[in-house]
Amino acid sequence: MKRTEVELQIQILGSVRATIHGQEVDLGPPKQRAVLALLALRADGHVPLDDLITVLWSGRPPVRAASLVHTYVARLRHTLEPDTPRRQRTNVIASAPGGYRLTVADNQLDLLQFRAGIREAAAWHAAGEHEIAFTTYRETLERWRDPQLTDLTTLLVEQDDIGPLRQEFLAAALDYIGLGLESGRPEVVLPLAERLAQAEPLNERVQARVLRALARIGQRAWAIERYADVRARLKLDLGVDPGAELTEAYREVLDADPPRPDGATLSADHQPPWRGPAAVVDELVGRTADLAAVCDLLGDYRMVSLTGPAGVGKSALGMAVALELRERFADGVAVVDLANARTGRELVQATAAVVDEPGSWHAKGCLPLTHRLHDRKLLLVLDNAELVTDEAADLVDDVLRGCPQVHVLLTSRELLGLPYEAVYPVRPLAVEKEHGSATAPALALFAQRAVQIQPAFRLTESNLEAVRSVCRALDGLPLAIELAAACLRTQRLEALVNVVDDPLRRIRPRRRGLPSHHRSLRAAVNRSMELLGPAEQRCFAALGAVPAEFGLEAAAVAGRAIGGEPETLQMLLDRLVDKSVLEVMHGASGRRYRMLGTVHALARQMLREHGVDSSAPASRCGCGCHTGH
C-alpha cells in the first residue's frame, strides 16, 4: 500500500475538501478545486484535458487554458503529496493519454467508500442477512453529507455527471427505506423518506415509500392527506394521474388498521405534518434571541405578528419558528404564502389550498375554515400578508374565535390591529460585533452567502472593513446583504463597496426560486409602495427631500411641500410607521423618525420622478442637518 493511501482522504459528497493525517489542506482557488472535484467525480477513469477546460470555462476558454490546467494540476500534486519530489508526484493525480486520472483507493475517497458500502449492503441483503444489510445501508448513507451536492454544483456548473450521482444516492436511499419497511422498522426510515419527499415532490417511488411508512406506524389519516396532496400536484404540474406503485401504496393505506384513539402508535421520531411551502433548511444568522422570543410569545398568545421593513427577514424567521414549534401541534403546521394575493377571495383560495383537501370547497366558493379547523391543533402561518391586511384580520378573527386549538403566526409589513394580537418587530442585523459573538451578525451573513458564490471566500482582517462598509450601507438588511453577496459572481469586493451607494439600481443579481419581491431590492421596496394610499405616497415622496433621520421640524417642511396641515402630516407619518416604511424613536430631543437607506433611496427617486415641490427653504432638523442636505 502506498504511503498516500494511509495519509490522504478526499471528500466530495459535501464540501469538496482533502485532509492529510486528519488536517485539512488548502486546495486553492475555485478553478483549482474544480479540477480535483471533476477528477474525483470520475475516479473510475481518466479525464480528458478538453473536459477539464470545458468545465472550467463553460465553453469560452482563454488562449492559455491548457497551460492553466497543467498549472492547477501541478499545484494540486504539491498540495496532496507535499513530501514527494516534484517529478515523482504522480501517486494521486497521474497523467493519462490526453488528460489526467485520480488514482486513490476506495478508503481514500468518500464517493468510492459510498459505492463500496452500497455494494456490500446489497450483497448482504441478497444473502438474506437483513440486519447486517440494514446497518450497512444506514452507515453508508450517513457518509453522504449533502444529497444536493451543493459545493460540487457550484464548482462544476452544468456538469452532466452530477445528476446521475444524485440518482445514486436516491436509489440507495430507496433500497434502504424499502428494507426498513420489509423488516418492520418504518419509524426508523420515515425521517429519511420525508426528506427525500421534500426534495423529490413528484417522484412517485419516494412518495409511495412515505405512504407505506405512515400507514405502518398508524398514521393513516396523515397518509391519506399526503396522497391527496401528491395526486393534486401530479395533475397540476405534469397533467398525469398517480401510477401503479403510488396507487398500490394508497390501497395499502386504505386497508391499514385505523390508529388507536390514544395515539399510542405514534412514533417518537415522527414529525407532525407540514402543509404548504416547505421550509428551507438553512442556518438562521443572528436570530437566536428573536427565535426564542417569538416561540415564547406563541406560548402565551394565540396570534403573533412579525412586522418590519422590506427585506428584514420576517419570512425566514417565521419559517424557523414554525419548524421549532412543529412538534407542539398534533396536526402540524400549515404555511400559506400570500405574496400574490390581492383580494379577500385570493386570500381564502390560497388558505383553502393548504389547509383543506382538494375538492372540498363550499358551493359558493368560500371555504368554511372554522368548520374545517375546529378540532385541529395546528399552527397556521400566513406569510407576506401585507397586501390583504383587512381581509387577513377578518379571517384570523374568525379562525381564532371558532377554532380553539389553532394558533396563528403572521408575517407582514403592517400589523392587523386585532385586540389580542401580539406584535414582534423584526430588526435589521447588527453591523457591529455584539457582546459574546465572534463576528457581527450582518457580516457573518455576508460571509455565509459569499462562500456560496466563491467557495474560497473567508472573512479576514484584510477584507473585514470592506464587508462592514457594504453591510452598513445596506442597513444590515438580510435580503440586501444576500443580494450584495450574490454580486460577487461578477464584481470584486472592492467594487461592491461603491455599488451599494445606489443599491436599488445596481444590486440586481439574477435569482430564481424566490418570490418576485425577493429577487431584487427594488422589487422588495416597491412592494411597500403598494401598501400606501395616494396621500401617503405623496408624503413619502416629499420625505426624499429630508435626511434619512429627521425630527418633527424637518417633517413639517415636507408637510408644507405637499400642502398638508400639521395634524394631517402627523397622521400620515403614523401610517408610514404602521406600514414599516418609517421607524419612530423617542429620546431627549423628542420624537424622531428614521428611514432605512434603501427606502430613503426610493423616496428620493419618487421625489425626482413625480415632481413633489421641495423648493421650501431648507431648515435644520433636530440633529442640526440641513433638510435639503
Walk me through the structure:
This protein has five domains: 3-110, Arc Repressor Mutant, subunit A (Orthogonal Bundle), CATH 1.10.10.10; 111-260, Alpha Horseshoe (Serine Threonine Protein Phosphatase 5, Tetratricopeptide repeat); 287-425, P-loop containing nucleotide triphosphate hydrolases (Rossmann fold, 3-Layer(aba) Sandwich), CATH 3.40.50; 441-523, no CATH class; 532-610, Winged helix-like DNA-binding domain superfamily/Winged helix DNA-binding domain (Arc Repressor Mutant, subunit A, Orthogonal Bundle). The protein is 49% helix and 10% strand. It is built from 27 helices and 15 strands. The strands form four sheets. Strands 7-9-10-11-8-12 form a six-stranded parallel β-sheet, with helices on both faces. Strands 1-2-3 form a three-stranded antiparallel β-sheet. Helix 19 (464-473) runs parallel beside helix 21 (493-499). 40% of the residues are buried. Residues 1-6, 259-269, 357-367 and 613-629 have low confidence and may be disordered. It holds the Pfam family Trans_reg_C. Belongs to the AfsR/DnrI/RedD regulatory family. Residues 1-104 form the OmpR/PhoB-type domain. This is OmpR/PhoB-type domain-containing protein.
